[in-house]
Design brief:
The chain has 239 residues and is α+β, with helices and mostly antiparallel strands. The chain is built from 7 helices and 10 strands. Strands 1, 2, 3, 4, 5, 6 and 7 form a 7-stranded mixed β-sheet that branches. A hairpin with a 3-residue loop joins strand 1 and strand 2. The protein is elongated.
C-alpha cells in the first residue's frame, strides 16, 4: 500500500524565510499539472496512507522544493466545498520557518519551479492559497508578542539591526500602524534595551562588516536556555 494517497486529504505549507537584504519571503512552487497549471501555489500535496500529516509536509517540501524545515506548526484546516475543482478536498495547512540561504531550491515531482517571493510582491495564487497565506502571516505576526521567532529566521550570530528590521517587517506591514508610525514606537535603542533586559539576546565580543556600513557591527546571539525558561514562565512582548 506504500505510495497510495488519501484522495480527499492534502497538506499545504506556508514557509517563511527572512534576510535583511530581501525582507520577509514566502516559498512558492509553480504547478506543473492541472488544475492551475503554471500558476504559483504553496508547496503541498496529497497525504499517503502510511504517513502522518507532519510526515507528509516534510516529504512534499523535500520533493517539490528540496528543503527541510525544523520549525513546523499546524495552522488551520481548510474545507470549503469549492476550494478545489477536482472534488471535495480538505487541506491541513502548516506554518514553517527556515533560513533561506541554508538551502538551494530544487523543484521536482509536480512542481515546475520553486522560488522565494517577497511577502509584499506576491503573484496570484492557485486554489484558496491566498487565504491560507494571509492567515499564516497573521499567525506569524501575532507570534512575535509571545515567542521570539528570530531563533528560526536569523543567523546564529547577527548584528542587532537585523533583529530590529525583522520586528519592523513583521509588525508594521499592512497592520493598523503605518511603517513610519510603527518605527517611531519601536525605537531602536528602547527595543535593544528591552531585549537585553529580558536576557533573550547576548552581546558578543565579535564584530562583522556590513554592506554599506563604514564600521563593523557588534554581533549578538539568542540565549536558548533563557528563551525556554521564559516559555515556561510566559513571555509577553509589549511595545
Amino acid at each position: 500500500m506504500s505510495g497510495q494517497t488519501l484522495r480527499n486529504v492534502t497538506v499545504d505549507a506556508v514557509v517563511f524565510g527572512y534576510s535583511p537584504e530581501q525582507n520577509l519571503r514566502v516559498l512558492l512552487v509553480k504547478r506543473k499539472y492541472d488544475p492551475h497549471i503554471n500558476q504559483w501555489a504553496l508547496p503541498g500535496g496529497f497525504v499517503q496512507l502510511e504517513e502522518s500529516l507532519e510526515e507528509a509536509v516534510h516529504r512534499e517540501l523535500q520533493e517539490e522544493t528540496g528543503i527541510s524545515v525544523g520549525y513546523l506548526e499546524q495552522l488551520y484546516t481548510f474545507g470549503d466545498p469549492d476550494r478545489d475543482s477536482r472534488r471535495r478536498i480538505i487541506s491541513v495547512a502548516y506554518l514553517a520557518l527556515v533560513k533561506p540561504d541554508a538551502f538551494e531550491l530544487v523543484a521536482s515531482t509536480d512542481a515546475a519551479d520553486a522560488r522565494w517571493f517577497d511577502i509584499r510582491e506576491l503573484p496570484e495564487l492557485a486554489f484558496d492559497h491566498q487565504n491560507i497565506l494571509e492567515l499564516a502571516f497573521k499567525r506569524l505576526r501575532n507570534k512575535v508578542f509571545y515567542e521570539p521567532i528570530g531563533f528560526e529566521l536569523l543567523d546564529d550570530k547577527f548584528p542587532f539591526v537585523h533583529l530590529y528590521h525583522l520586528y519592523l517587517t513583521m509588525l508594521a506591514g499592512d497592520g493598523p500602524l503605518q511603517a513610519d508610525e510603527f518605527e517611531a514606537q519601536l525605537e531602536r535603542r528602547n527595543f535593544k534595551r528591552l531585549m537585553l533586559k529580558r536576557g533573550l539576546i547576548v552581546e558578543l565580543n565579535e564584530r562583522r562588516q556590513q554592506k554599506g556600513s563604514g564600521r563593523p557591527a557588534r554581533l549578538y546571539r539568542f540565549d536558548p536556555e533563557k528563551y525556554e525558561d521564559m516559555k515556561k514562565e510566559g513571555f509577553s512582548f509589549e511595545l
